[in-house]
Design a protein that fits this description.
- This protein has a single domain, classed as Alpha-Beta Barrel (TIM Barrel), CATH 3.20.20.
- Helix 8 packs across helix 9.
- Strands 1, 2, 3, 4, 5, 6, 7, 8 and 9 form a 9-stranded mixed β-sheet that branches.
- Helices cover 33% and strands 19% of the residues.
- It contains 9 helices and 9 strands.
- It has 245 residues and is of the alpha/beta class.
- The protein is globular.
């Protein structure tokens, strides 16, 4: 049987050992033979794409309130690492441009999960697309979102950037739905869909990548199912299991 290379994406960087979505977490992940890094993108009040997961600041920074209600200068006054450990106090919320410039020296892909309210879809994509084009990174970028309207609108531009929709629930007749958005990527919560429901998608050429798999047995199951890729907070563990399989 032909060996299938299931990609391993470091979820928010090497987030099991470092504060998520920080440069130190990304740099630690880059030391591993990973296939990609997943990171979350939001807009600041002054419309600059930054890397942070929650729409509010409290969990992973010393700030309070919504990310989009703060300017970049305001956000830069908060530590993005002290919540995890005092030794990471110097970490700040990275800008997308900072990450793109840094990633140029590597070959792995970047999965940008876009997070914005519906009324900011156009502003979000224009800001992100400008940076991708400016830094010549379109062939190494994967755009994903829970906002399927946003993904469909990106696909309608006939862009060369790969896209994917993200879902939590198990979908009924997923292939027809995914194809209706125009994307060929499907990121799903691993426990919510059976192998038999995913196999037809892969046979139809859809790239399927379950998230966020941190359990060793589930990793083995995913690799044995030969999915396109997985997202994990433990990429170092996943790489070892992939090698063993």
């Amino acid at each position: 049987m032909k060996k299938v290379h299931t990609e391993v994406f470091a979820h928010r960087g090497l987030s099991s050992l470092y504060p998520e979505n920080t440069m130190i977490a990304f740099k630690a992940a880059a030391k591993l033979p990973i296939d990609g890094i997943e990171l979350d993108v939001q807009l600041t009040k002054d419309k600059i794409p930054v890397i942070i997961h929650d729409v509010t600041l409290e969990r992973t920074t010393e700030g309070k309130g919504m990310v989009r209600d703060h300017t970049l200068d305001q956000l830069m006054t908060y530590s993005a690492g002290a919540w995890y450990s005092e030794q990471f106090r110097q970490e700040r919320i990275p800008t997308l441009e900072e990450v793109l410039i840094w990633a140029k020296d590597y070959t792995f892909r970047l999965n940008l999960e876009l997070k914005c309210p519906s009324w900011e879809r156009k502003e979000m994509w224009e800001a992100v697309k400008h940076l991708i084009d400016h830094h010549g990174m379109s062939d190494r970028i994967l755009i994903s979102s829970f906002d399927h309207v946003l993904i469909a609108s990106i696909e309608q531009e006939a862009t060369t950037v790969e896209t994917a929709v993200i879902v939590v629930a198990g979908l009924f007749k997923p292939l027809s739905y995914i194809q209706s958005t125009g994307t060929r990527g499907f990121h799903y919560f691993f426990p919510m869909m059976l192998d038999g429901e995913i196999k037809p998608l892969m046979e139809a050429g859809i790239s399927v990548r379950p998230y966020t798999i941190n359990d060793n047995q589930m990793m083995k199951q995913a690799f044995q199912s030969r999915v396109t890729g997985i997202f994990t907070d433990y990429p170092h563990v996943a790489l070892q299991i992939r090698e063993e399989i």
